[in-house]
Design brief:
Elements: H1 2-17, H2 25-32, H3 34-54, H4 57-77, H5 82-92, H6 97-104
């Protein structure tokens, strides 16, 4: 099932939150704090855009995987997971995008 990888990755990220920074890339990223994680998310988002503009589908998939991964690191930093995002997408399913956006607009 497609969500199995997300569950396994979530478990790994949780374990890395408490690991020594010199034991893994993710532990080091958590150790550097939110600003470092945000910087990586921004870098990866830019790389997705550039890959899309290149038109190389394989490169686009690779860079999107990097972006998703770093977004999951950010979610874990905030004690959230991919399941929280999937739940939100499920909540939105069948809603008009315009109606959903309007429901979030504060007056």
């Amino acid at each position: 099932m497609q969500t199995d990888i997300l569950k396994r990755l979530t478990a790994t990220l949780e374990a890395r939150k408490h690991a020594l920074p010199d034991t893994s890339y993710v532990a080091k990223l958590f150790g550097k704090g939110e600003d470092a994680i945000l910087k990586k998310v921004g870098e990866e988002a830019t790389e997705v855009i550039l890959a899309s503009k290149e038109g190389d589908k394989t490169h686009l998939v690779y860079e999107t995987a990097d972006l998703w991964f770093h977004c999951m690191v950010l979610l874990a930093h905030h004690d959230l997971s991919a399941q929280d995002v999937l739940d939100e997408l499920s909540r939105r399913e069948g809603l008009s995008g315009i109606a959903e956006k309007n429901s979030r607009t504060k007056e």
